[in-house]
Amino acid sequence: MSASPAQATPLPRLLVSVRDPAEAEAARLAGVDLADAKDPERGALGALDTRTVREIVARVSGGAVTSAVAEPTPRDVAAMAASGVDWVKTGIGPAPRGDGAALAALAAAAPGRLIAVLFAEDGPAAALVPHLAEAGFAGAMIDTAGKRGARLPDLAAPADLAAFTAACRDNGLMSGLAGSLRVIDIPSLSAYAPDYLGFRGGLCRDFDRRNGIDPLRVAEALRALRPSRRDAA
User: Fold this and answer.
1) Which region holds residue 3: left if phi is over 0, alpha if psi is between -120 and 50, else beta?
2) Is the pLDDT of residue 4 over 60?
3) How far apart are CA 171 and CA 152, in angstroms?
4) Nearest residue to 196 via CA among 106, 117, 130, 128
5) Catalytic center residues
6) What letters, b where the CB count within 10 A reaches 16 and e where it falls short, cover 151-166?
7) Where on the phi/psi map is residue 157: left (φ > 0), alpha (ψ -120 to 50), or beta?
């Protein structure tokens, strides 16, 4: 994908959450498009300290990296942006946090690099996308807040996911779909043309997000994505 997150593409790329530099390097060598630096035992937005994130960025030199912030404040966003990541993620509630000025202040702390994380448990998200675009966000993704039960396809209706990715394209935002996904989810979710599909547990040993990334499962995910890429091409 282009370094510009506003340049939408119909070809889903593979995002995999990694918890340390060694895991990030292994994921990069396995062919992962985007390493999402986070602590998998602390949920969808398990922020790592900026020192660890810097080490991950250095280890995957030439590859794309994103990371979440511990608190959705301009100060935390700016600090994570300074770590060298390509994009910073921050959680956003079911209604835009505060007013437009508050959202704009968050986006201004990482110009062109802030990604909103919306949770499937909060309901349809398409209506929030224009507010995020107006505030200056670079993209948005839907994830699941819970990581030990329901998957994204269990919580979000197909029409809602299609409306979300379409709203992102219409508003010039990068889009992502994640949430306890398995490789078997790739064909159906690829049909919505998100920019990224995000994984952790589904690509780990024994499907346990606390275990390490399994390169064989990464390869399986990439093979599942290739038909989508050929069809779009």
Assistant:
1) alpha
2) no
3) 23
4) 117
5) 38, 89
6) bbbebbeeebbebbbe
7) beta
